[in-house]
Protein backbone atom coordinates (compact mmCIF):
# COMPACT_ATOMS: atom_id res chain seq x y z
CA UNK A 1 0.00 0.00 0.00
CA UNK A 2 1.46 3.27 -1.02
CA UNK A 3 2.54 5.51 1.73
CA UNK A 4 0.41 8.62 2.08
CA UNK A 5 2.22 11.81 1.35
CA UNK A 6 2.02 14.35 4.11
CA UNK A 7 -0.50 17.06 3.29
CA UNK A 8 0.69 20.61 3.47
CA UNK A 9 -1.35 23.75 3.20
CA UNK A 10 -0.14 26.35 0.78
CA UNK A 11 0.55 29.68 2.38
CA UNK A 12 -2.12 32.20 1.61
CA UNK A 13 -0.95 35.63 0.60
CA UNK A 14 -1.14 38.10 3.44
CA UNK A 15 -3.54 40.93 2.68
CA UNK A 16 -3.80 44.01 4.82
CA UNK A 17 -7.20 45.28 5.89
CA UNK A 18 -6.86 48.29 3.62
CA UNK A 19 -6.45 46.04 0.54
CA UNK A 20 -9.46 43.77 1.12
CA UNK A 21 -12.13 44.42 -1.51
CA UNK A 22 -15.87 44.35 -0.84
CA UNK A 23 -17.54 41.12 -2.05
CA UNK A 24 -20.88 39.40 -1.59
CA UNK A 25 -21.86 38.53 1.97
CA UNK A 26 -21.82 34.75 1.29
CA UNK A 27 -18.62 34.71 -0.77
CA UNK A 28 -15.28 33.62 0.74
CA UNK A 29 -13.52 36.53 2.38
CA UNK A 30 -10.68 37.80 0.15
CA UNK A 31 -8.33 37.82 3.15
CA UNK A 32 -7.98 34.05 2.82
CA UNK A 33 -9.38 33.09 6.22
CA UNK A 34 -11.74 30.53 4.70
CA UNK A 35 -14.75 32.16 6.28
CA UNK A 36 -17.56 33.90 4.47
CA UNK A 37 -17.11 37.62 3.99
CA UNK A 38 -20.07 38.50 6.25
CA UNK A 39 -18.49 36.54 9.14
CA UNK A 40 -15.02 38.00 8.62
CA UNK A 41 -14.05 41.43 7.29
CA UNK A 42 -17.63 42.07 6.20
CA UNK A 43 -18.61 42.57 9.83
CA UNK A 44 -16.72 45.85 10.07
CA UNK A 45 -18.01 46.97 6.68
CA UNK A 46 -21.61 46.19 7.68
CA UNK A 47 -21.23 48.06 10.95
CA UNK A 48 -19.80 51.09 9.16
CA UNK A 49 -22.63 50.93 6.63
CA UNK A 50 -25.37 50.95 9.26
CA UNK A 51 -23.90 53.30 11.87
CA UNK A 52 -25.86 56.54 11.59
CA UNK A 53 -23.98 59.82 11.60
CA UNK A 54 -26.31 62.20 13.44
CA UNK A 55 -25.06 65.40 11.77
CA UNK A 56 -23.47 64.37 8.45
CA UNK A 57 -23.00 67.97 7.24
CA UNK A 58 -21.50 69.32 10.47
CA UNK A 59 -18.38 71.38 9.80
CA UNK A 60 -19.27 72.16 6.18
CA UNK A 61 -19.85 75.79 5.22
CA UNK A 62 -23.60 76.39 5.20
CA UNK A 63 -24.58 73.27 7.16
CA UNK A 64 -28.16 74.53 7.56
CA UNK A 65 -28.51 75.07 3.82
CA UNK A 66 -27.10 71.59 3.12
CA UNK A 67 -29.92 70.19 5.27
CA UNK A 68 -32.50 72.36 3.51
CA UNK A 69 -31.34 71.29 0.05
CA UNK A 70 -31.31 67.65 1.12
CA UNK A 71 -34.81 67.61 2.64
CA UNK A 72 -36.89 70.69 1.80
CA UNK A 73 -35.98 72.36 -1.49
CA UNK A 74 -37.05 70.82 -4.81
CA UNK A 75 -34.71 72.54 -7.27
CA UNK A 76 -31.49 74.26 -6.26
CA UNK A 77 -27.77 74.28 -7.01
CA UNK A 78 -24.62 75.48 -5.27
CA UNK A 79 -21.07 75.72 -6.57
CA UNK A 80 -18.55 73.65 -4.57
CA UNK A 81 -14.92 74.63 -3.98
CA UNK A 82 -12.55 71.70 -3.50
CA UNK A 83 -9.60 71.80 -1.08
CA UNK A 84 -7.11 70.67 -3.72
CA UNK A 85 -8.64 72.68 -6.54
CA UNK A 86 -10.32 71.33 -9.66
CA UNK A 87 -8.65 68.48 -11.55
CA UNK A 88 -7.56 69.10 -15.10
CA UNK A 89 -10.53 68.88 -17.45
CA UNK A 90 -13.11 69.62 -14.74
CA UNK A 91 -14.21 73.25 -15.11
CA UNK A 92 -16.65 73.20 -12.18
CA UNK A 93 -18.32 71.07 -9.50
CA UNK A 94 -21.95 71.88 -8.71
CA UNK A 95 -24.15 70.43 -5.99
CA UNK A 96 -27.73 69.84 -7.17
CA UNK A 97 -30.78 68.82 -5.18
CA UNK A 98 -31.65 66.09 -7.67
CA UNK A 99 -30.50 64.93 -11.11
CA UNK A 100 -32.39 63.30 -14.01
CA UNK A 101 -33.27 59.64 -13.45
CA UNK A 102 -32.08 60.16 -9.85
CA UNK A 103 -28.43 59.75 -10.90
CA UNK A 104 -26.05 60.16 -7.95
CA UNK A 105 -23.79 62.32 -10.14
CA UNK A 106 -23.21 63.32 -13.75
CA UNK A 107 -20.07 64.27 -15.65
CA UNK A 108 -21.25 66.53 -18.45
CA UNK A 109 -19.84 66.55 -21.95
CA UNK A 110 -17.74 69.61 -21.11
CA UNK A 111 -16.20 67.80 -18.11
CA UNK A 112 -18.12 69.68 -15.41
CA UNK A 113 -19.58 67.65 -12.55
CA UNK A 114 -23.10 67.71 -11.06
CA UNK A 115 -23.44 65.99 -7.67
CA UNK A 116 -26.95 64.92 -6.61
CA UNK A 117 -27.88 65.45 -2.95
CA UNK A 118 -31.35 63.92 -2.58
CA UNK A 119 -30.45 60.31 -3.43
CA UNK A 120 -30.76 57.26 -1.22
CA UNK A 121 -27.41 56.37 0.32
CA UNK A 122 -25.96 52.96 1.10
CA UNK A 123 -24.57 53.75 4.54
CA UNK A 124 -25.44 55.73 7.62
CA UNK A 125 -23.02 58.51 6.67
CA UNK A 126 -24.39 60.65 3.86
CA UNK A 127 -21.20 62.70 3.82
CA UNK A 128 -19.01 59.66 3.10
CA UNK A 129 -21.35 58.37 0.41
CA UNK A 130 -21.44 61.75 -1.34
CA UNK A 131 -17.67 62.09 -1.14
CA UNK A 132 -17.23 58.68 -2.78
CA UNK A 133 -19.66 59.63 -5.56
CA UNK A 134 -17.87 62.96 -6.06
CA UNK A 135 -14.45 61.36 -6.33
CA UNK A 136 -15.68 58.90 -8.95
CA UNK A 137 -17.44 61.67 -10.87
CA UNK A 138 -14.20 63.65 -11.14
CA UNK A 139 -12.51 60.80 -13.02
CA UNK A 140 -15.37 59.30 -15.03
CA UNK A 141 -15.66 59.85 -18.76
CA UNK A 142 -17.38 63.10 -19.84
CA UNK A 143 -21.00 62.59 -20.79
CA UNK A 144 -21.41 59.75 -18.29
CA UNK A 145 -23.63 59.43 -15.20
CA UNK A 146 -22.19 57.93 -12.01
CA UNK A 147 -24.05 55.04 -10.46
CA UNK A 148 -24.52 54.51 -6.72
CA UNK A 149 -22.52 52.05 -4.67
CA UNK A 150 -21.52 51.38 -1.08
CA UNK A 151 -18.66 53.69 -0.18
CA UNK A 152 -15.53 52.19 1.45
CA UNK A 153 -15.79 52.39 5.23
CA UNK A 154 -12.44 54.19 5.42
CA UNK A 155 -13.08 56.53 2.50
CA UNK A 156 -13.02 60.33 2.77
CA UNK A 157 -16.01 62.46 3.74
CA UNK A 158 -17.15 65.71 2.16
CA UNK A 159 -15.38 67.54 4.99
CA UNK A 160 -12.11 66.09 3.66
CA UNK A 161 -12.70 67.18 0.06
CA UNK A 162 -14.42 70.59 0.26
CA UNK A 163 -12.66 73.84 1.15
CA UNK A 164 -14.12 74.57 4.57
CA UNK A 165 -13.33 78.28 4.23
CA UNK A 166 -15.29 78.68 1.01
CA UNK A 167 -18.75 80.21 0.72
CA UNK A 168 -21.82 78.05 0.21
CA UNK A 169 -24.44 80.03 -1.69
CA UNK A 170 -27.47 78.03 -2.87
CA UNK A 171 -29.39 79.23 -5.90
CA UNK A 172 -33.05 78.16 -5.89
CA UNK A 173 -34.56 77.46 -9.33
CA UNK A 174 -38.19 77.42 -10.43
CA UNK A 175 -37.55 74.21 -12.39
CA UNK A 176 -34.88 71.70 -13.35
CA UNK A 177 -33.64 73.22 -16.60
CA UNK A 178 -30.19 73.42 -15.02
CA UNK A 179 -29.90 69.68 -15.72
CA UNK A 180 -28.97 70.28 -19.35
CA UNK A 181 -27.24 73.16 -21.12
CA UNK A 182 -29.86 73.06 -23.89
CA UNK A 183 -33.18 71.72 -22.58
CA UNK A 184 -34.83 71.95 -26.01
CA UNK A 185 -32.36 69.43 -27.47
CA UNK A 186 -32.38 66.99 -24.53
CA UNK A 187 -32.83 63.28 -25.22
CA UNK A 188 -36.44 62.01 -24.99
CA UNK A 189 -35.60 60.18 -21.75
CA UNK A 190 -34.14 63.27 -20.07
CA UNK A 191 -36.90 65.51 -21.48
CA UNK A 192 -39.58 63.25 -19.99
CA UNK A 193 -37.81 63.20 -16.63
CA UNK A 194 -37.48 66.99 -16.75
CA UNK A 195 -41.19 67.42 -17.47
CA UNK A 196 -42.20 65.15 -14.57
CA UNK A 197 -39.84 66.89 -12.15
CA UNK A 198 -41.01 70.39 -13.10
CA UNK A 199 -44.65 69.37 -12.65
CA UNK A 200 -43.98 68.13 -9.11
CA UNK A 201 -41.78 71.02 -7.94
CA UNK A 202 -43.24 73.23 -5.20
CA UNK A 203 -42.44 76.95 -5.76
CA UNK A 204 -39.72 77.80 -3.23
CA UNK A 205 -37.73 80.95 -2.40
CA UNK A 206 -34.74 81.35 -0.09
CA UNK A 207 -35.02 84.44 2.11
CA UNK A 208 -32.19 86.96 1.86
CA UNK A 209 -32.40 88.63 5.29
CA UNK A 210 -31.87 85.53 7.45
CA UNK A 211 -29.92 82.31 6.96
CA UNK A 212 -31.39 79.03 5.69
CA UNK A 213 -35.06 80.11 5.72
CA UNK A 214 -37.17 78.92 2.79
CA UNK A 215 -40.63 80.15 1.81
CA UNK A 216 -42.75 77.72 -0.19
CA UNK A 217 -46.17 77.84 -1.83
CA UNK A 218 -48.77 75.09 -1.63
CA UNK A 219 -52.38 75.05 -2.91
CA UNK A 220 -53.98 75.68 0.50
CA UNK A 221 -51.44 77.91 2.28
CA UNK A 222 -47.84 79.00 2.20
CA UNK A 223 -45.13 77.99 4.66
CA UNK A 224 -41.79 79.14 6.00
CA UNK A 225 -39.31 76.39 6.86
CA UNK A 226 -36.26 77.66 8.69
CA UNK A 227 -33.28 75.39 9.38
CA UNK A 228 -31.56 76.56 12.58
CA UNK A 229 -28.09 75.68 13.90
CA UNK A 230 -28.91 75.83 17.63
CA UNK A 231 -28.95 72.78 19.91
CA UNK A 232 -32.42 71.26 19.90
CA UNK A 233 -33.15 71.52 23.63
CA UNK A 234 -31.94 75.11 23.78
CA UNK A 235 -33.94 76.08 20.68
CA UNK A 236 -37.14 74.44 21.94
CA UNK A 237 -36.84 76.32 25.24
CA UNK A 238 -36.43 79.61 23.37
CA UNK A 239 -39.35 78.91 21.03
CA UNK A 240 -41.49 77.96 24.04
CA UNK A 241 -40.69 81.28 25.74
CA UNK A 242 -41.76 83.17 22.63
CA UNK A 243 -44.84 81.01 22.09
CA UNK A 244 -46.04 81.50 25.67
CA UNK A 245 -45.52 85.25 25.32
CA UNK A 246 -47.53 85.34 22.09
CA UNK A 247 -44.53 86.45 20.01
CA UNK A 248 -43.72 83.28 18.06
CA UNK A 249 -45.69 84.23 14.93
CA UNK A 250 -44.45 86.13 11.90
CA UNK A 251 -47.36 88.55 11.79
CA UNK A 252 -51.12 88.53 11.36
CA UNK A 253 -52.53 85.26 10.10
CA UNK A 254 -49.24 83.37 10.60
CA UNK A 255 -48.62 80.63 13.13
CA UNK A 256 -45.69 78.53 14.39
CA UNK A 257 -47.13 75.04 13.86
CA UNK A 258 -44.26 72.74 14.81
CA UNK A 259 -40.86 71.65 13.55
CA UNK A 260 -38.93 69.01 11.67
CA UNK A 261 -35.84 67.18 12.85
CA UNK A 262 -33.38 66.68 10.00
CA UNK A 263 -29.76 65.52 10.11
CA UNK A 264 -29.22 66.69 13.67
CA UNK A 265 -30.82 70.12 13.24
CA UNK A 266 -34.26 71.53 14.06
CA UNK A 267 -36.46 73.17 11.42
CA UNK A 268 -39.30 75.34 12.81
CA UNK A 269 -42.27 75.63 10.44
CA UNK A 270 -44.81 78.45 10.16
CA UNK A 271 -48.13 78.44 8.33
CA UNK A 272 -48.63 81.59 6.27
CA UNK A 273 -51.72 82.95 4.48
CA UNK A 274 -51.75 82.25 0.76
CA UNK A 275 -51.51 86.01 0.15
CA UNK A 276 -48.15 86.28 1.96
CA UNK A 277 -45.25 85.87 -0.43
CA UNK A 278 -41.55 85.55 0.18
CA UNK A 279 -40.90 89.30 0.00
CA UNK A 280 -43.63 90.07 2.56
CA UNK A 281 -42.13 87.65 5.10
CA UNK A 282 -38.55 89.02 4.93
CA UNK A 283 -39.04 91.79 7.52
CA UNK A 284 -41.09 89.70 9.99
CA UNK A 285 -38.48 86.93 9.78
CA UNK A 286 -35.65 89.36 10.57
CA UNK A 287 -37.62 90.73 13.53
CA UNK A 288 -38.29 87.19 14.77
CA UNK A 289 -34.56 86.43 14.57
CA UNK A 290 -33.92 89.27 17.03
CA UNK A 291 -36.59 87.98 19.43
CA UNK A 292 -35.19 84.47 19.17
CA UNK A 293 -31.63 85.65 19.93
CA UNK A 294 -32.89 87.30 23.11
CA UNK A 295 -34.80 84.18 24.14
CA UNK A 296 -31.77 81.97 23.47
CA UNK A 297 -29.70 84.19 25.77
CA UNK A 298 -32.12 83.59 28.68
CA UNK A 299 -31.24 80.75 31.05
CA UNK A 300 -34.02 81.21 33.61
CA UNK A 301 -36.16 78.10 34.30
CA UNK A 302 -39.28 77.80 32.16
CA UNK A 303 -42.51 79.01 33.72
CA UNK A 304 -45.55 76.67 33.83
CA UNK A 305 -46.98 78.37 30.72
CA UNK A 306 -43.67 78.03 28.92
CA UNK A 307 -43.40 74.35 29.85
CA UNK A 308 -46.88 73.74 28.44
CA UNK A 309 -45.90 75.59 25.27
CA UNK A 310 -42.75 73.49 25.02
CA UNK A 311 -44.73 70.29 25.40
CA UNK A 312 -47.01 71.33 22.58
CA UNK A 313 -44.04 72.12 20.30
CA UNK A 314 -42.38 68.82 21.15
CA UNK A 315 -45.55 66.89 20.31
CA UNK A 316 -45.65 68.54 16.89
CA UNK A 317 -42.14 67.52 15.84
CA UNK A 318 -41.65 65.30 12.80
CA UNK A 319 -38.34 63.54 12.13
CA UNK A 320 -37.24 63.58 8.48
CA UNK A 321 -33.94 61.73 8.91
What does this structure look like?
This protein is of the alpha+beta class and 321 residues long. Helix content is 29%, strand content 16%. It is built from eight helices and twelve strands. It has helices at residues 42-50, 63-71, 126-139, 158-161, 188-200, 232-244, 278-296, 304-315, and strands at 76-79, 93-96, 105-107, 113-116, 144-146, 171-172, 204-206, 213-217, 222-226, 255-262, 265-272, 317-319. Strands 5-3-4-2-1-6 form a six-stranded mixed sheet, covered by helices on one side. It has a six-stranded mixed sheet with strand order 7-8-9-11-10-12. A hairpin with a 2-residue loop joins strand 10 and strand 11 (265-272). Helix 6 (232-244) packs across helix 7 (278-296). Mean pLDDT is 89; it is low at 1-14.
Features:
single chain, 321 residues, alpha+beta, six-stranded mixed β-sheet, 29% helix, 16% strand, globular, disordered N terminus
The count of DSSP E runs of length 2 or more, i.e. the number of strands, is: 12
Order of strands in the sheet with the most strands?
5-3-4-2-1-6
Radius of gyration: 25 Å
Low-confidence stretches: 1-14
How many alpha or pi helices?
Answer: 8
Category by helix and strand content: alpha+beta
Work out the strand percent. 15-25%
- N-to-C CA distance: 71 Å
Which bin fits the share of residues in helices?
Answer: 25-40%
What pattern of helices and strands is seen along the backbone? HHEEEEHEHEHEEEHEEHHE
Task: Give the overall average pLDDT.
Answer: 89
Shape: globular
Summarize the main sheet: 6 strands, mixed
